[in-house]
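Project outcomes to date are best conveyed with an example. Our students and postdoctoral researchers have been running inverse folding experiments weekly, and each run begins with a structure described purely in tokens. The record below, which covers 376 residues, was selected by the lab manager from last quarter's runs and is presented without edits.
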């Protein structure tokens, strides 16, 4: 696989300088599953300053681990100095056996926890489940996430630990929850993952999320795609919770841009439930947001426009943004000799609506006349 060949360039560079270096964790798991990896992690005996000196393009991460991001052929690699004092120790500190494998530059597997066997048996297992899950309770949510992505069964001992310890998930940082939740949400075996959340009562303990059995059952019936955008996922989540704005996402510390984008879709969605698209509602919503809304409607089993139908309406709207309007606030001031004030905003909006609804041509003289008549 090309991804691994490229990562091997980094291993070779480190090896040539006498450092140990291995691809580890999810990338090895995905390689053995013949799946493309979201990201590639490398561990090495080299120290961060040594890593930085060997690669021209690097970024130092400010995390608890000693990680340097290396950029090579426009891919990013997280290169981390061994957490413990050896590879073995590093691997045993990981969450699940299937995530505890390493591979050297020649493709030899280093697998002290028997991860390959569990991978073949489609099994999620931790070597020491009590310690692993209680040391970092997010790992319990990661178990559900991997159930969702891979459809693997959860080992009985691990399951018991989750059943009796889920409440400590409360202490986990919401930013970490949001990332795992999205992956869980998009997984093709989401139904099994939601079952696990319900059966273990884990859903009651996930900080930042508002979940109950009804919400989980509704979500599990939706045909969400693995490649769904984050904004569509969060909008669907809000809709299933039946909220009319995205404030609920603030407790997950999501970016304000994302929350604004979700809000646009929620506002448009509720507008759309009341009426079909008109020139004006589509113009205000914009085509991309409207396409997402129609797509979300189809996910929710509601009648939806096709993308091409929306494009047809959009194509017939004379302008697609305020900047295409043939007059500006300056034109209005020149024309009227009035003082600047809120009336400008009001008139520009009126002109915009007139153009969008085909009541006036998008032409300066026509618009100024039309506004003149409107003032009387
Ligand atoms: P993805 O496919 O989403 O990248 P991943 O398993 O690679 O999944 P990452 O967050 O990229 O997840 O982490 C990389 C590796 O680091 C994991 O495979 C695992 O070995 C280890 N890891 C990540 N998070 C934890 C954790 N909370 N506790 C223990 N080990 C972890
Ligand atoms: Mg990864």
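After processing, the design step wrote out the following sequence:
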């Amino acid at each position: 696989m090309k991804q691994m060949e490229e990562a091997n360039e980094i291993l070779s560079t480190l090896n040539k300088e006498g450092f140990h270096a291995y691809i580890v964790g999810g990338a090895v798991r995905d390689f053995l599953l013949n799946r493309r990896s979201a990201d590639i992690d490398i561990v090495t005996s080299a120290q961060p300053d040594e890593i930085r000196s060997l690669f021209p393009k690097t970024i130092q991460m400010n995390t608890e681990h000693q990680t340097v991001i290396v950029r090579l052929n426009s891919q990013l690699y997280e290169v981390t100095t061994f957490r413990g004092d050896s590879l073995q120790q590093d691997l045993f500190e990981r969450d699940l056996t299937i995530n505890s494998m390493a591979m050297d530059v020649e493709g030899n597997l280093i697998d002290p926890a028997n991860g390959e066997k569990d991978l073949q048996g489609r099994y999620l297992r931790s070597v020491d489940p009590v310690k692993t899950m209680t040391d970092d309770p997010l790992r319990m949510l990661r178990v559900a996430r991997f159930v969702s992505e891979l459809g693997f069964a959860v080992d009985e001992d691990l399951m018991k630990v989750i059943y009796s310890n889920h409440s400590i998930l409360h202490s986990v940082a919401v930013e970490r929850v949001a990332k795992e939740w999205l992956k869980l949400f998009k997984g093709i075996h989401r139904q099994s993952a939601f079952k696990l959340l319900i059966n273990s009562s884990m859903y009651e303990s996930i900080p930042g999320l508002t979940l109950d059995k009804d919400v989980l059952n509704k979500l599990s019936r939706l045909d969400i795609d693995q490649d769904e955008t984050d904004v569509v996922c969060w909008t669907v989540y809000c809709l299933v919770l039946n909220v009319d704005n995205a404030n609920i996402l603030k407790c997950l510390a999501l970016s304000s841009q994302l929350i604004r984008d979700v809000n646009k879709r929620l506002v448009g969605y509720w507008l759309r439930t009341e009426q079909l698209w008109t020139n004006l509602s589509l113009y205000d919503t914009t085509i991309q947001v409207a396409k997402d809304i129609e797509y979300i409607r189809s996910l929710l089993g509601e009648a939806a426009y096709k993308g091409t139908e929306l494009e047809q309406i959009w194509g017939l709207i004379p302008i697609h943004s305020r900047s295409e309007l043939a007059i500006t606030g300056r034109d209005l001031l020149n024309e009227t000799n009035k003082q600047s004030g809120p009336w400008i905003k009001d008139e520009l909006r009126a002109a915009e609506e007139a153009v969008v609804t085909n009541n006036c041509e998008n032409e300066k003289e026509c618009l100024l006349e039309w506004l003149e008549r409107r003032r009387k």
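The mean pLDDT is 94. The two ends are 72 Å apart (CA to CA). The training component of this project remains on track.
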